[in-house]
Amino acid sequence: MNRNLTEILISVLMGALGQTILKLGANKLGNISLSLSNIVRDILHILIIPEILIGLILFGSSFLLWIKVLTKSDLSYAYPMVSLGYVLVALLSKFLFNEPFTFNKIIGIVMIVSGVFILNS
To answer: Which of 1, 29, 59, 115 has its CA 20 to 30 A from that of 12?
Structure first.
């Protein structure tokens, strides 16, 4: 497998995992207003939730790896691969949050994967 492709897929995977783990943390938050009068309190409340910190670390790592990818790959090659993150998030959401996995989602996933394959073949 092409080294750039490996780095792209790792970055996409970390981004999707980060998003999913952030959702786990967000489920623990309850209501936050992020109003000017409560912003500091709300940010501190957000940052003490372990899942949110882990999600941010994964996002940050994904971002740094993505910057590395962009130094070595054509954007028109690398960027369509980001859409694979939607596929991963849909699958993770089904198993972790019991979100519906409808026929339309399956068709959409097939279209995304097909599109990525066509764009990069």
So the answer is: 29
